[in-house]
Design a protein that fits this description.
By secondary structure, the chain is mostly helical. It has six helices and two strands, in the order H-H-H-H-E-E-H-H.
Length: about 150
């Protein structure tokens, strides 16, 4: 660089290219939502993955660990410690699977049911808040488009 050439600097960051990328936009939106989600779920001592596991158990009583791993894309060793922690907190219990003698089905305890009911209500309120700028049809379209990418 010549001594007479001005040194470049940035007043306003140009993000035009990044904003054309689905991944960039999805990640930015997810970061906003997850940060707020973590803050609101702190009262229940639930992380995003804990909430997902508990919600799946709620809506699929008797689901197996293998089914949870496949549905959420979680590695089995990671899920084992999570299930143990949720069981120690008396949120879930394991019961023998009626059709597979080797498997255990996961079920909510009474405390788990109460916790998930409140946590899902909180999640629904969060969803309304973070999508407040969208019309109901836009929100429905956004969900459908995102599902097309990962399903």
């Amino acid at each position: 660089m010549d001594d007479e050439d001005p040194i470049p600097f940035v007043d306003k960051v140009n993000t035009r290219y990044l904003e054309t990328l689905v991944g960039y936009n999805a990640r930015r939106a997810a970061l906003v939502i997850i940060a707020e989600f973590m803050e609101r779920m702190a009262v229940y001592e639930l992380r995003t993955v804990d909430f997902s596991v508990l919600s799946l158990i709620t809506h699929n009583p008797g689901i197996t660990s293998k089914q949870l791993c496949n549905t959420l894309g979680i590695q089995a060793p990671n899920l084992v410690s999570m299930v143990n922690a949720l069981e120690q907190r008396d949120l879930i219990k394991r019961l023998p699977h009626p059709n597979d003698g080797r498997a255990m089905g996961l079920h909510l305890t009474e405390l788990g049911e109460q916790t998930v009911r409140r946590a899902e209500k909180t999640a629904a309120e969060l969803e309304r808040d973070v999508t407040a700028k969208l019309s109901p049809q836009e929100r429905k379209t956004l969900l459908a488009l995102l599902k097309k990418i990962y399903k």
